[in-house]
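re: that chain from earlier
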Amino acid sequence: MGAGEKESGIAQQELRINDRIRVPKVRVVGADGSQVGIIDIDSALRMAQDQDLDLVEIAPQADPPVCRIMDYGKYKYEQAVKQKESRKKQSLIVVKEMKMRPKIDRHDYETKKGHVVRFLQHGDKVKVTIMFRGRETVHPELGRRLLDQLAEDVTELAKVDTPPKLDGRNMTMVLGPHKDNASAKQQAPKPKRAARPKEVEPGAEKAVENGPAKPARPIKITRAEGG
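^ sequence. v structure.
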C-alpha cells in the first residue's frame, strides 16, 4: 500500500489520539517515518510530548496497535485542503429527462428536440423516455425509430451513452454531451455585473427634458451721449 493510500485510509477512520489511546503497548512510527518499535503507551506519549507533537493511532486493528507521532492539527488541515481540491476537479454530472409519445407530431418533436439541444450545450446528460399507452405497447419499433432519429439529429452535440431499451411501458435512451461541451460548461465565464448608473446632478433631468440649454443672448452696452 502506497503512502497516498495509507493517508486516505487514516482519513476515513475515526482516529484516537494521545490520552484517548487506551492500550498498554503500541508499535510507534516516528515523525520522520522511522520505526521506533514496540513500547509502553506512557513512553510513547512522553516521546510525542517531548517533540511537541501528537501520538495518533493509525492502525487500531493491529496487535499491538500502530501509532504515529505527528502534528495532528496540521495533518487534518492538509487532508481538508486535499479533499477540497479533489471536489473542485470532479465535474458535476446533471441528468435531465425529456419525455415523448411514440406518435408525437412534428411541431412537438422540434420543440422537445430544442430542449434536448439546450441541455446538451449546457454540458448535461439527457435521458429521453418514450411513453407507450394502450395498444402502442405492441409497436415498440415506433419508439426505437423516434430515439434513433433524435440521436442522429443531435449527433454533433452528443453520443449515445445508453442505447434504447424497453422497460415496461417505457423505452429509454441516455445521451451524453461530447467532452468539449462539458469542458465549455466548466470554463464559461461568469456574467459581469451591470454597471451602476451614474448619479444625475439636481436639475439635470429637467434640462434634459427641455432640450439642450440655449446660450444667453449677449448684452449690448451703449454709452450715453453728452448733451
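The chain has a mean pLDDT of 81.
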